[in-house]
Design a protein that fits this description.
alpha/beta; globular; single chain; 7 helices; Rossmann fold
């Protein structure tokens, strides 16, 4: 399979997310979110991420969320005491939703349309904490380059917090005839390619821009963080899923697979 160059992959993924945005806004979850976000203590973070952030301490921090989607997680950070929150995404359509939620929230985040690989200068070396949650790393064709740009947003001593799907889970296909048979290599080099809208429940059978989903091993993720001047301070794997409900079939197995992980890395003092 011939994969476009990285610049074209990133642009195609951007278009794919814009094509998909309205399908998310049509869901009942969106209508509920519009009401929930009006509460001062609104949070959509699950116990794992909220517990980690409480342990690290978000109170009084300037936080950036990279790949913020519709902004619901960014707005949740205020309930933990964040001083300021900026959400960054390259999908203009999802940022429209983020700003709609922001207008209903008693807090005020800022949402910026930008490709993480081309961040505006005012966002560099600005934040105490950078947050990445599920469904960000795998859209990045070059994980090393991505982490360098992530690290550039942090002040010296600033922390990167990741809560992501475990790459082992990419080896399984929950919709296969035998969902417990390994479907692809852990070391898969070529991306998964999809030409339908990106949705979390079911499938939408209509054309959309191609999206490219890359598998990054834990080794690649760790190496990318270290090469970017980030020291690993915390890493933990979990037996629960933070993905689509399809993956819940892998819960509570006698031979349990790792399903997600948290990672915290601190920017080395003196690294620009």
């Amino acid at each position: 399979m011939e994969v476009p160059n990285h610049k074209n992959v990133i642009e195609s993924n951007r278009q794919a997310w814009n094509d998909s945005a309205r399908h998310h806004q049509d869901s009942p979850d969106w209508q509920a979110l519009l009401d929930e976000v009006t509460q001062a203590d609104f949070s959509c973070l699950d116990d794992t991420l909220r517990g980690l952030l409480e342990q690290l301490g978000v109170d009084g921090q300037d936080v950036v969320q990279l790949g913020c989607n519709n902004g619901r997680e960014s707005l949740s950070l205020f309930a933990l005491g964040a001083r300021s929150v900026i959400g960054i995404d390259q999908s203009a359509a999802f940022l429209e939703q983020a700003r709609a939620l922001n207008s209903r929230s008693p807090h005020h985040a800022e949402f910026i349309e930008a490709d993480i690989h081309r961040l505006p200068a005012p966002l560099l070396a600005r934040f105490d904490m950078a947050l990445i949650t599920i469904g960000v790393l795998n859209w990045m064709p070059d994980i090393g380059e991505f982490f360098r740009h992530v690290a550039a947003t942090l002040k010296p001593g600033g922390r990167l917090v990741i809560y992501e799907t475990h790459p082992f889970l990419e080896m399984l296909d929950p919709e296969a005839a035998d969902p417990y048979r390994l479907a692809t290599s852990y070391f898969r080099a070529e991306p998964f390619v999809q030409e339908q809208p990106i949705v979390y429940v079911g499938k939408v059978e209509q054309a959309a821009a191609k999206s490219y989903w890359f598998v990054h091993t834990l080794g690649a993720i760790f190496s990318a963080a270290l090469d970017a001047g980030l020291n690993i301070a915390h890493f933990r794997e979990y037996a629960h899923s933070n993905r689509e409900e399809l993956y819940d079939r892998y819960l509570d197995q006698e031979a349990q697979v790792p399903m997600c992980f948290t990672l915290v890395a601190e920017k080395t003092q003196g690294v620009v």
